[in-house]
Amino acid sequence: MNKASLILTGITIFLTTAAVAYLGFIVTGVIRQQRSFKNFRWPGTFLAGLLFLLPLLAGIYLLPQVMTPTASKEATVPLELWAAGSLIFSYLVFFTGHFFPHRNKYYNPGAKLVFISLLPSMANAGIIFIITTYLNSNGDKLYYLVFYFVLCVYLYVTTNKIIKEQVLDISKTVILDLNKLIISKVFNTSFRDFEKIRKGSLFAVLNEDIERITVFCNNAVNLYTAGITVILVLIYLLTINPWAVLLLFVVLAVILSIHYSMGIKTAKHFHRASELREVYMDQLLGLSNGFRELIMHQVKRRDYRQELDTSCTNYNEVIHQAYKKYINRTMVSDMAFILSIGISCFLLPAIFHLDMKVVTAYIMGALFLWGPLNMIVKSVPEVVGIKVAWKRIQQFMGANSINSEEAIRQLIEQDSFVIEKYSNREVDSITAEEVLFEYSSEQAPDEKYFVGPLNFEARKGEITFVVGGNGSGKTTLAKLLAGLYVPGRGKVKINGKLVPGRELGEYFSVIFSDFYLFRKVYTETGVSKKNTEALISLFRLNGKVTVDNNTFSTLNLSRGQTKRLALLQCWLENRPIFLFDECAADQDPEFKEFFYLELLPRMKQQQKIVIVITHDDRYFNVADSIFKMEMGQLVCLNDKVM
Ligand SMILES: Nc1ncnc2c1ncn2[C@@H]1O[C@H](COP(=O)(O)OP(=O)(O)OP(=O)(O)O)[C@@H](O)[C@H]1O
């Protein structure tokens, strides 16, 4: 069998096998109901595909004339037809896949990529084959070789364009899904766990780690193409001299194992760098949140800046070391590869008594391998980096939570529950029975602080005060009542019925001492302009702020005005229980009077349950009942309730 027949047979077998395999995937996908029919505007796409195929069909047709000038044309015509037929058949099968897309959105572009990414490698191998054929020829096939060279370049460029666009689409989806996944995870984290998360790590995961995975997605296809190119060039070299390929193989195995063993050390550096980046991010957050405090005092500013500089330098140093180690590795592998080329060049002809033409072709092939191989070898740190990034995302997400497609889907969709209405609900009482909560941390397991066991009750149409010294546990009680903390023991009940932790919060409108005011008012019913105008006047914010489209016109207000706005927002939410944690603590006498003597009685009048954590003993007479917190224990100061 001459070379042309061999190549044509190879093309036919490869394309037919790939097409039949793909057809098999489509059919099984349809049977398993993973794929279903979906129509699209296909005629234009189909014709564009056919146009793309035309030069390739010409290439198949001309192949026998280039490679076997002396062979009879009749002998190869059927093979040309088979090859051309298999190309069209595979195109039709490939196209059919568009009509039956897989349910998994990564599967369709992924399968397409696996197939198309083979083509640039083939074009690459074709180019080296054409060049070496030309070098070894006497120039009689120049026009044909130029045609095939252009054909290979055409194939390389067009398929690479398709691949790059597909990869871009996939990485866009990956970024979006991972971001949504992390955000969903944050939303589904309990408040206590959220308190424990280092905020720097949240931003590090959202920025750096996801970015790293995306970059890897882009490079993975290049890696795959490089791998196929290496295989094809090796096959070509095999046809020139098998022993030389074996030698090359041994050299490559040695280079890769050296590279890999050096890579383990680099991985440790990359891991350490990620940890230091979290610390740095945390401090950057401190800079942003505490800028006002920092800018005012020289010492604070100097010391914080020093700390920030130190963590920035530490991070930089470690990442620098990691990349330095990586450079050492690449130098070792670069040197080993160049040495192996030298050995091939000087020793091979002597050992195997090879013709110089064969040696030239061999060296050409080996040099051609250099690019793709380099890419594969140099991607090792990327693979290490991605392993580190993925591990951190997994850690962040919690063990075993994202190991299946179903788990991911459920997590993303978890928040799409039906919204129940809680405003205006009839709530007679909220009670805590023998509730106990324990603060503990992994860093200091021996240092524990207990709140409770305690009993508490607040009733409709009554104002309940909770008083007590700093650190006695008042805010912890508030978080337990509002379902932010889950008690280790005991129960929190609404109207005498046990309510799940997550639902408890729905009954509350809360202002904690370190509250965050959102610019938009998120209410079940939206807010009417007329109603809000009256409220703005009640809260004495006229001329300061307006509400349009459920959104406050500004948040640039004084601290007291911001508190009033937060109270106004609570009012708009219209939940059955109001809870205020030291809401008037840092306010002027006028605000205090407004809060204790005007607002709270109005809420009471509206039959709300009003719980107020306070130190303002001047207004204790406003309360219907007063509880006192002492070292985590609760006592009722008047027996009106208990
Ligand atoms: N996130 C936390 N992790 C660990 N321990 C905590 C945490 N928050 C509070 N504590 C501990 O629980 C105790 C009670 O805190 P809490 O905030 O409930 O007190 P408080 O009565 O509201 O104080 P203050 O009047 O100063 O606001 C504190 O002594 C503190 O040591």
Automatic annotation (TrEMBL):
Please identify the protein, giving its name as recorded. Cyclic peptide export ABC transporter
Q: Where in the cell is it found?
A: Cell membrane
Q: Name one GO molecular function term.
A: ATP binding
Q: Where are the transmembrane segments?
A: 6-30, 42-62, 82-101, 113-135, 141-157, 221-238, 244-262, 331-352, 358-377
Start and end of every ABC transporter domain? 430-641
The way it spans or sits in the membrane comes to:
Multi-pass membrane protein
Q: Which residues form the ABC transmembrane type-1 domain?
A: 170-385
Q: Set out the biological process GO terms recorded for this chain's protein.
A: peptide transport
Which SMART domains does this UniProt record tie to the protein?
AAA
Nucleotide-binding recorded as keyword: yes
Q: Which SUPFAM superfamilies match?
A: ABC transporter transmembrane region, P-loop containing nucleoside triphosphate hydrolases
Q: Which GO terms describe its cellular component?
A: plasma membrane
Q: What keywords are assigned to this protein? A: ATP-binding, Membrane, Nucleotide-binding, Transmembrane, Transmembrane helix
Q: Is ATP-binding found in the keyword set?
A: yes
